[in-house]
Amino acid sequence: MRIHLDTNLLIQTPQWELLPPGEHEFLVSAIAFAEFSEGVVHPDPAIAAQAAIELIQYRSTYGDGMPFTQREADIYRELCAVVASTGRAPGGKRRVDLMIAAIAIGDGAALATRNITDFEGLQPLLNVLTL
User: What is the DSSP-derived secondary structure letter of residue 39?
Assistant: First the structure.
């Protein structure tokens, strides 16, 4: 199973034991890497340095982030419509979550997260795993 990792799983160690049985390939989107990169400009130099090292390690482990192309932008637009139809606003912080979801959907992959509520309403379109 191809599984995209949400940004929060780069910040906190995933609970790998919650994975369904089988072989898994883990990927990270360029959007998640960008969001994680905010840590490298933290005002505390020790936290910023640790985030920079972790980013290097994650890029080494997961490779280049999966891109957000026009196809994913089109999927994102449809996800915004789904979210809006439930009465929730697709903008703000949710925008990044929807972009990450669009990349996973475009890749035909599941999405693993600690915050399943960030992806509420997308389950018919996206297999969301809680780790």
Answer: G
- Please state, in angstroms and rounded to a whole number, the distance separating the CA atoms of residues 123 and 128: 7
Tell me the Cα Rg of the chain: 15
Q: DSSP per residue over 89-110, as a string?
A: ---TTHHHHHHHHHHHHHHT-E
Distance CA 52, CA 56 (A): 6
**Whole-number mean pLDDT of the chain?**
94
The per-residue pLDDT for 51 is: 93
Q: CA torsion 109→114→115→120, rounded to 10°?
A: 40
- Residue in this structure with the two tokens 């035909």, named with its chain if needed: 108
The amino acid at residue 49 is A
- Quick one: tokens of 126? 């996206």
- What is the tens place of the pLDDT at every residue in 77-127? 999 999 999 888 888 888 999 999 999 999 999 999 999 999 988 988 999
> Within 13 Å and on the Cβ side, how many CA atoms surround 39?
18
Among left, alpha and beta (phi > 0; psi -120 to 50; other), residue 57 is alpha
pTM: 0.91
Amino acid identity for residue 28 in this structure? V
